[in-house]
Structure formats: C-alpha cells, structure tokens
Amino acid sequence: MTSNPVTVTVAYHVVPGREAEFHSWGWALLGASARQSGFLGGGVLVDREAEWHVVYRFASEGTARAWEDSTARVQWDARVVGFARQTGRTSVRGSQAWFDSQTATPKAPAPPSKWKLWFVNMSAVFPPVLMFNLIVLPYLGGLNAFVRTLLLCLCVTALVTWILMPRLQRFFKKWLYPPLQALRGRHKRRTA
What we know:
This protein has helices at residues 19-33, 61-68, 71-79, 96-103, 114-136, 145-171, 173-176, 178-191; strands at 6-14, 39-47, 51-58, 84-93. It is α+β, with helices and mostly antiparallel strands.
C-alpha cells in the first residue's frame, strides 16, 4: 500500500428520466464516504448527458480500499441498482492522472468522406479547365496534342494547388470536418 492520495472514478449509465435520483444518490454516497477516515473530497459529474461519474479521493490506497470493501459501500451500491448500472472504474494514485493527461496526444480528426473530397476537387479543377479550353486553347490550335495537354496540366495544376484548393479548403472546413468544429465551438462556449 502507498501513502499517496488515491482518486477513484466510478462511471455509471443512468436510466433516462432518473438523473435527478442518481444525482441525489451520488451526493448521499459521498456524504457517507466522508465519514470514513482519510476521505479528502469528491463530486458527481456528468459527461454529455450520457455517462455519470462519482469521483472521490482518499488519503491513501488503504483508506480507499477500506471504504470500497465496507458493508456501507455495498449497501449504497445496492440502492443504485434500480436506476443506474456501473460501467467502469478507475483508480489513480498521487498526481499520476495529471501527468498522464498532459502526455496524451489529441486524436486526429477523421478524414472527410470520399464524396466530399470529390466535390471540393471538382469545384477546384472544373473552372480553370473550362476557362483554359474556352480562352487559351483556340490560340494553341497549331500545336500538337502533347504540348497542348502539357500546357493545360501545368496551368491548371498550378492554379488548383496554390490558389484554389487552399481557399476552398478554408471555405469548406466546417463541412469537411464537422466533429472538429463542434469540439472547438463547444470549447469556445465554455470559456466565454
């Protein structure tokens, strides 16, 4: 056993419509655990209305285990059966959680679907190809097909790569990467 503080997080799936009952149960559970020696604090949290967490902290692993193995804790767990079920449990010693969360790398956004990429590419390629065919090709009629096609590819590729695609990607960013934008928007609302 260690003398480092231990933080325990227990996740629950709550039956829809019974959230207030679970909230009251969670705080009552924490009130009961506060009577145990070594209790340092706790709280009841909700994660996007889907998963609830009861978090409590004890002075050592031994005091946390004494609470979890107690008959009082077993009785509290029996009371929640009708409106919630436990879905997970984590226990972290000391400041390990702080350092673990600092080293975790954020998940990269999922790539856009193929049809969205096709649409953005067509929006970038079609206008310069059309304009090149209507405006430039009539003056290049005397050149052989290889040179005309090479000039078309060079001009269109340069326009698409350096001018059109960067602008279209910025314009369609929210449409191409909606989960990333939703996360950023949620973060801005919380800090505002």
